[in-house]
Amino acid sequence: MATAVTVPAAAERWEVRDWARRAWSLSPVLAVIALLLVPAVGGAEGGTGGTGTLADAASGLLVLISLMRVLRSGARPLTRAAAVVLGLPVLGICLAAITSNDPAASLPGVARYVQVFVLVPAAVVLMVRDRRDFAVIAWALVGLALLQGAVGVTQYLTGTGASYMGEDVRAVGTFGPTDVMGMATVVSYGLVVVTGIALGSGRGRVRTAALVCAGLLFLPLVLSFSRGAWIATVLACAIQLVLSGPRRAARVALVVGALAVVLVGGLGVGSAMVKERAGSITQVAAAPDQSVTDRYTMWAAAGRMWRSEPLTGVGLKGFPQYRDANASLALSSGSDTAGAGAAFQRQPLLSPHNMYLLVLSEQGLVGLLTVAGSWVALLVAALRRRAREARGAGGGDCALVAIGLLSWQLVDFLYADIGGPSTVLLSVVFGLAAWWSLAEVKRA
Q1: What is the domain extent for residue 141?
Q2: pTM of the entire predicted model
Q3: Is residue 121 part of a domain?
Q4: Residue 419 contacts by C-beta under 8 Å, 6 or more apart in sequence?
Q5: Smallest Cα–Cα separation from 122: which of 443, 441, 430?
């Protein structure tokens, strides 16, 4: 009897120690995630603008530490495929800066793009050793999402959120009213992660914990009132469901639908505002609100910039400079922000809120093929590895998490671009997905 009790207890203690050691080894990555809980100071800049947050500083330290580990080990840091795919954006970025009408003004954009899409993702790939390391970072994303979501729900319930339809009820977490997509992005990442874990794990405590977290994260995502995040999350989770099997997809869809009916329809959680926001998705052509009109106008302006410089674009950080010369009179001077502890201010529209059009207008076709081509290559590589792993009946949770995160980001880029404190988390997500897609995956 003593042995039957002691052995599981010893195994659990070893498991705790193993997770603690891994967390310490991955502390540079976890620090970037944790520091996103620190409230942002100042406005969030659009486009390629940097925000100078503590998380950005931690990402720089992460790159230095990963470089030191590589130099100390003397081993080849990345596979050939990983080096090519992660390094591909540098070509378009540097060419756009060199051919810019104002190369000096483009230098901050070069630094931001290289940080977000090259250096930090590569550093994350170098830090992750096996599937358990992957799991530590994935659950850290979930933890951040739960904390930010809890702040967001509290903001809605107490009327201390960002201003929306004349009321301070929009859930924005610690990101403030100038980065209303920050909390929505973080919560969406967490929801996609736990969906992948729940679908890819066997019955047990891990799946139960993932399902509980998914239920908790659904509410703050709804209360973010972010149409782009809603659409991207639905599509990413749908892709994960399809990859996990059609029967399971049907069952989960019914459960999620029932949960939505209970929370929004039965309990009336933000029902009027949620219905109005959801209904506006289908009204973008017939009766668009001003935010949609501004977005369409900036998309058209980005297209005109590209047509003027089709190969290399107008240059990094060039969109604000050329916006007025290419936009119609339908464009407003900016968007109103208030609430969540901040005074009313007019936030200028400095980007098209579409990452593909931002890259196309500022970097041209060369930039779009190299930068966006790198993202598509990651997704294709993730799908191919998923197919190989499925035949071997292993790694389903990692595959679904990586594919889900990549799918979410590529869809969200249709409605958003980089800018704001949450941008650095995007680079961690790309690194996590790149490890699964391109690294030599070790079984823990």
Answers
A1: 28-33+43-298+334-438
A2: 0.89
A3: yes
A4: 44, 45, 46, 47, 48, 49, 51, 350, 351
A5: 430
The answer to whether residue 321 is domain-embedded is: no
- Domains in the chain, number: 1
Burial level of 243, CB count in 10 A (0-12/13-18/19+)? buried
What's the chain's average pLDDT?
83
Confirm whether 303 is domain-assigned: no
pLDDT of amino acid 260: 65
Task: Give me the sign of the Cα torsion angle 276, 281, 287, 293.
Answer: positive
pLDDT at 56: 93
Please name which of 53, 117, 58 lies closest in space to residue 90, comparing C-alpha atoms: 117
Separation between Cα atoms, residue 98 and residue 134, nearest integer Å: 37
Distance CA 123, CA 68 (A): 11
Residue 259 has pLDDT above 70, yes or no: no
Q: Establish if 8 belongs to a structural domain.
A: no
> If residue 343 lies in a helix (H) or strand (E), which one and from where to where?
strand 342-347
* Structure-derived torsion over alpha carbons of residues 288, 291, 293, 294, reported in degrees to the nearest 10: 180
- 205 contacts 154 by C-beta, under 8 angstroms: no
How many whole angstroms from its chain centre is CA 281? 21
Length reported for the chain: 444
3-state helix, strand, coil in the chain (%, to 5): 70, 5, 25
